[in-house]
Each structure stands twice: as structure tokens, then as C-alpha cells.
């Protein structure tokens, strides 16, 4: 299998340019005492990663054993890592990963019980949706659930406002499905809303959305140069092709770090209960006034959520979406529980087999 190729970083950057602060320094102290080197993973591939250190960029090896027990523990883009220095003609090696402040996870495309890491230590998740095509509120709700669950602050950015007849009306509709989240209207063509986005988004910023939503174009505006490849969308269905092939960190000229991601075709939830509750905070608030504490908002009498729907204050689609995502999340959680349970049973069987073999050996010696 060919090794992944990496483009070198365009100019030298320090760890501070990538978000290193006093908290990172304090957390790294034991690793520094052990002679390890602090780094941030800029891009991760199979067995290798591009990292930045205070002495410059480094290409480091990722141990084969990394993430074998739990894929979510494997090094990923955005991680702060401790590198074992290069020695004997070998490249530096990722020795360990520092505890993550935030982590963005979705379910795997293969629908296994494991989650798929998207990014770590993100501060702002920019959920992008194009105004050049009909908005899919359900998709926005999914991405918001992932963003809230990560621990980062989500921001909804509606792109291509110059191609929409009434962008402000669309923004008002999205605001109703994004409680507690800023909803910005932007246009890369006219520059609309970009200053506001720069003011709202800070720290490590990840762009999240489907292909064709304008993530790379938006990223170029934030970077101040055309660093990210962009492409046109199909007129037939408004879908775009992947122009970003991997997740990579890029320092922003005004401070902070940008993480551009490939377009997400599937946005499955993985253990996102808290994220769902924040995404549907309006439903959660209404539920507090239901007659029964375990109300499922179906046919129960005294349901405050159903009353709000009948009064026209809450759309039925909103509740249906909430129920659908709750079921999906519960199913994902059940598969994870089943995997852990099977793992424990396999471990017990292995111990029992070893004990039987030991007893049989002792009996033969008598």
C-alpha cells in the first residue's frame, strides 16, 4: 500500500499559531519531563501524520496499535500530541495524545458500532448550508446535534446569499430550528456577513456541511487567499463534488486556526443525547410543562408540546425530526452497548479457557 503524500506547510509557524496556550503547557509538563516533543496534528492519514512543532513541521509515524481497542482514541486532526523524537534514522513517533477539550464524532459510514472521528479540540463549528438550493432543515439539525455534542460552539452560516431571492426570510426560518445559535447570511461574491463571521468564530474553527455548500470558498475568504480548492455544483440537483480530500489545519492571518473538511454525505449520530437536547432546546422547554414527566409527546393528555403544535407555535416537522433523531441515537447507543457486552463476554471466555488449560496441565503433571 502506498504511503500518503503530504504537502509541506507553506511557511514556518509556531505552536502558538495553532492554539498552544498555558493550559496546553500545563497538561504537557509530564510528557516534557519524559523528553517528548509537543505538537499539533495538522493532518492525519493511515500510519502517518503531518504535525507542527516549535521547531517546524514534522512528519510523524502513528503506531499500528493506535486506536485498535477504541478507534476514537486514535490520533486525529486537531489533536495535541506528544512526539517521541526521531532516532536512528527513523521519523518521530506519536507517543500519546493529550486529553481532548472537544471532539467531533459521527457514526461510521459502515454503520458499525464505532464512531468516526472528524476533529479534536475545536472551538467553533461552522455549520454551512447553501441558499442557492432549497434548505434542508433536518440536515441542519443533524449537524447542530453533532456540533453541540462535541462541546464546541456551533454557528450556522448560510452561504451564497447572492443567489437567494429572500435570504433574510430563509435565515429567520433556520433560526427557528437553531435555538441558542447565531445564524449568519454570507456571500463570498459580495463579502456580505464575512466580518460578522470573523467576529463570532474564534479559536480552532471547523467548517461542516455537504459538498457544494461553499465551505472551501468560505474558508478562502477567512484565509485571505485561495488556498482551498473550489468547484461548481451540478445545476440538476445543486450537489457539489468533493474538492477537499482530507481534514487539515491552516492558521488564519488574524489569529485562530481553520479546519476544512470534505463534504459529508452521511451525518449519522453517535452517542449524541446531550447534543440533541441542546439542538431541540425549544421542545425540551415545552416538555417541562407536560402533565406526565415521561410524556412521549404522542397522544398523552396534557402534552405541552402537542398543544404548541396545535396552536401553530411549533411546527409538526420539528417534533417529527426530534423523534426520528432520538430513535437513531438510541439505536446507535444500543449497538455500542452490545459491542461492549460482547467484548466483556469474549474476555470472560478467554479467561475460562486459560484456566481450563492450566488445570489440565496440572492434572497431567500429577
Automatic annotation (TrEMBL):
Zn(2+) binds at residues 290, 295, 297, 303. Binds 1 zinc ion per subunit. It is found in: Cytoplasm. Keywords: Cytoplasm, GTP-binding, Hydrolase, Metal-binding, Nucleotide-binding, Ribosome biogenesis, RNA-binding, rRNA-binding, Zinc. Its main location: cytoplasm. It is an enzyme of class 3 (hydrolase). Gene3D superfamilies: P-loop containing nucleotide triphosphate hydrolases, Probable gtpase engc, domain 3. Residues 110-267 form the CP-type G domain. It holds the Pfam family RsgA_GTPase. Residues 120-265 form the EngC GTPase domain. The keyword Cytoplasm applies. GTP binds at residues 159-162, 209-217. Monomer. Associates with 30S ribosomal subunit, binds 16S rRNA. Belongs to the TRAFAC class YlqF/YawG GTPase family. RsgA subfamily. This is Small ribosomal subunit biogenesis GTPase RsgA. The lineage of its organism: Bacteria, Bacillati, Actinomycetota, Actinomycetes, Kitasatosporales.
Amino acid at each position: 500500500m502506498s504511503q500518503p503524500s503530504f504537502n509541506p506547510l507553506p511557511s514556518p509557524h509556531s505552536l502558538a499559531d495553532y492554539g498552544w496556550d498555558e493550559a496546553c503547557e500545563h497538561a504537557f509538563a509530564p510528557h516534557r519531563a519524559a523528553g517528548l516533543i509537543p505538537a499539533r496534528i495538522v493532518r492525519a492519514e493511515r500510519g502517518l501524520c503531518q504535525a507542527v512543532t516549535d521547531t517546524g513541521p514534522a512528519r510523524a509515524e502513528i503506531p499500528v496499535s493506535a486506536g485498535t481497542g477504541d478507534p476514537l482514541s486514535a490520533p486525529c486532526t486537531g489533536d495535541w500530541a506528544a512526539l517521541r523524537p526521531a532516532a536512528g534514522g527513523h521519523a518521530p513517533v506519536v507517543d500519546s495524545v493529550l486529553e481532548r477539550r472537544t471532539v467531533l464524532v459521527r457514526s461510521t459510514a459502515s454503520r458499525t458500532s464505532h464512531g468516526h472521528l472528524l476533529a479534536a479540540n475545536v472551538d467553533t463549528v461552522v455549520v454551512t448550508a447553501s441558499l442557492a438550493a432549497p434548505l434542508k432543515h433536518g440536515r441542519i439539525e443533524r449537524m447542530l446535534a453533532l456540533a453541540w455534542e462535541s462541546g464546541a460552539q456551533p454557528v450556522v452560516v448560510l452561504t451564497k446569499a447572492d443567489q437567494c431571492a429572500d435570504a433574510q426570510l430563509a435565515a429567520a426560518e433556520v433560526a427557528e430550528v437553531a435555538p441558542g445559535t447565531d445564524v449568519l447570511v454570507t456571500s463570498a461574491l459580495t463579502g456580505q456577513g464575512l466580518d460578522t463571521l470573523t467576529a463570532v468564530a474564534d479559536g480552532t474553527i471547523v467548517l461542516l456541511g455537504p459538498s457544494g455548500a461553499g465551505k472551501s470558498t468560505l474558508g478562502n475568504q477567512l484565509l485571505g487567499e485561495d488556498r482551498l480548492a473550489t468547484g461548481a455544483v451540478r445545476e440538476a440537483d445543486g450537489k457539489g463534488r468533493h474538492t477537499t480530500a482530507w481534514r487539515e489545519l491552516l492558521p488564519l492571518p488574524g489569529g485562530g486556526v481553520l479546519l476544512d473538511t470534505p463534504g459529508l454525505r452521511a451525518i449519522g449520530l453517535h452517542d449524541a443525547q446531550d447534543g440533541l437536547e441542546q439542538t431541540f432546546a425549544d421542545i425540551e422547554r415545552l416538555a417541562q410543562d407536560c402533565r406526565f414527566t415521561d410524556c412521549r409527546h404522542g397522544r398523552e393528555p396534557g402534552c405541552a408540546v402537542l398543544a404548541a403544535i396545535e396552536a401553530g407555535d411549533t411546527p409538526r416537522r420539528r417534533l417529527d425530526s426530534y423523534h426520528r433523531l432520538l430513535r437513531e441515537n438510541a439505536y446507535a447507543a444500543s449497538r455500542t452497548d452490545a459491542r461492549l457486552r460482547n467484548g466483556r463476554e469474549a474476555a470472560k471466555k478467554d479467561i475460562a479457557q486459560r484456566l481450563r488449560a492450566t488445570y489440565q496441565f496440572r492434572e497431567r503433571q500429577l
